# Entry
Amino acid sequence: MSRLQFLAHVAENKCTGCKQCEFICPSGAIRMAEKRAKIDGDRCIDCQRCIDICKKENAISRAPRLSEVTRYVDHKNLDPEKVKTLCEKAGVLPDLPICGCSRTTGKETIAAILKGAKTPEDLCAMTGLRSGCGIYCMTKIFQAFEACGIDLEEPKDRRWIKLTISLDDLSEEKVVQIDKTFPQYHMGEDWRKLKNRAVTSVTKGSVHV
Amino acid sequence: MYRSAINPPGVMTSVYGPQPKERAINILDMVSVSIGDLFPDIAERIYEDGDDPSAIERATDQALSLVDMGMIKSGETVKLLSSEHGFAILGGQPYVTMLKAIKNNIQARAGCEDVLLMVGAYKGFREADEVISHFDLKRVFDGKVYGYGPYDKDIPIETEIGTIYGIKKLFNGDWFVHSYYDDPREMYYHRMIDRAFKSFIMSYVRFETRSVYHMNFGNRSANFLPRAIFNAPSIQERYSFSCFLRTSPAGILSIDADNDLSALNERITISHLKKYGKMMRLFNEIDECIALVDGSRWGFYLHAGGVILGVLMNVKTDPFDLSNHKALGGLKRNKKGELVPKLINPAIKAIVMNQAWPGINYLGLEDTPIVIVGEDHADMWKADHCNPQIAEVAQTATDLNQAMDMAYDIGMTDKVIVFDGSFGHVNCSPSMARLLMEKAPQVSREVDEELVPMWLEQRGIDPQAI
Ligand code: SF4
Ligand code: SF4
# Structure
């Protein structure tokens, strides 16, 4: 969930149309029209990355919204068993935020996909994911789509790369080999804990905390 | 009687955070306790804030004299890969001095003129430019200085556990130098395993790869990833040598260089366990305190006696004990029913933010009272989507004196520890100084006699052999 009091605003007379901001926007809120950046306020999540990347002084800035808006997807009217199963498949815990910043939980992430998010950008616009650091939740976003059966097509400009490699993907043979050479990583112990977890818990992902 | 509080390193001007109006030690009655007084056996250093940086230059020359640079030919391109926090350690001058000296050594010994400095950023697109301008790096590196960050163009790296994505511009020269520091930051979270490799999974890679490191492995097993990246053939083909700014709680310990990164890594592990281990266990003895965050970049990473605030927040378990699989003490449910890491040290009764940059997540702050100094500063924090919980819990004070009065009332303690970027000493209240001095001898014995041997063995290092 994200509570938003601001959004990005473009000064059209200053924007050079360089598209840098469009590339970096996590919520797909920026489109180029007539060689100028245009902001879709219904998608903007106030991450300020566009302001940071823009090299043209004051071309894009932060403006107050008329009133605070909340980006949150309710999971209550969805089948809780289905949400739970998809969370398990995605390697997220239903009640654990997949993002330390926006604190969007596993079940909210899955709910957003079930309610129509087709791309990471849609998901961010709906939930506020990536409004903070924008970095650490990325792989969980990909895993959530994968679990829901959506095969994401990577953008040609490489604004994101679908990377989901995890401890769960390692073969037992590989884990044993790593354990032998580098016991300090406790690779086997972490791997077995992951493989042996109860169904209510993680099946792909971490045992980090 | 304790010494007067000591001026902390300066704060760089930035678009990412405000300048502090007043540094804490100038307006509060603080004292300083030196690392030498606490732990005489870990007091050695070659540099502390304000010293002549030529000692760093000489140490770099000496360390590099033992390194093979024979692989570098004149006419080739060498990239010095630097990382963000180095420019914040003791104001950044020691790291910059080391980087300059590496360049001079390569040019002199290999006859190679094309030495480029790559300046790493955490995530902001202006961070590198600010660093370059603050330290006048364009002039020093003859214009051959470039910023890089986690959103830059990728390069696939084939590792033994699959393809991951690095930053292309770092790995497309003939050679690179791993020009790093021993990263005395979140030692709890990465469990003091392979600190020397860490930038191969953070600075030098794309944001998706950083995400995998944090989210898809255990806190111990994740540390295999940077080693796997370092060992990838495409990385090894370009790797020349490593040169490190070595630190201890006392300050800059040395410059260490080696072609063999594993050997360098082992030296760092031994030193960190012995030296930072003492400070960490000492911080664990703090029964109650107000943590005062006083100026520089991201507050979570600000040092007091070389140890960051993030460590104080997490010292209630022994993070160096690898038999414990948890780094953050597990999870708990908050009032909203969400699972959140159970990590904040209950000894922290309040946090006062005199100045720090927002933009990095402080896990587990929701139950900790926070007072922010200044309306403008508070507005930045409250609008920071990395920390929505701060907006929920923080109070605002007009100035630092008022903030401290509020914190004393809330925390019911006069023990204050100032995170102001200091190494070599801890600036703190007299009551905190007393506590630290009282506890240090026992901590020292326990770390030397019980913990260090266990920590070393757990990392495959024979305690008898060192
Ligand atoms: S980055 Fe700035 S100048 Fe470029 S398109 Fe966006 S607003 Fe316009
Ligand atoms: S979501 Fe972020 S990058 Fe996109 S328009 Fe809003 S502030 Fe700019």
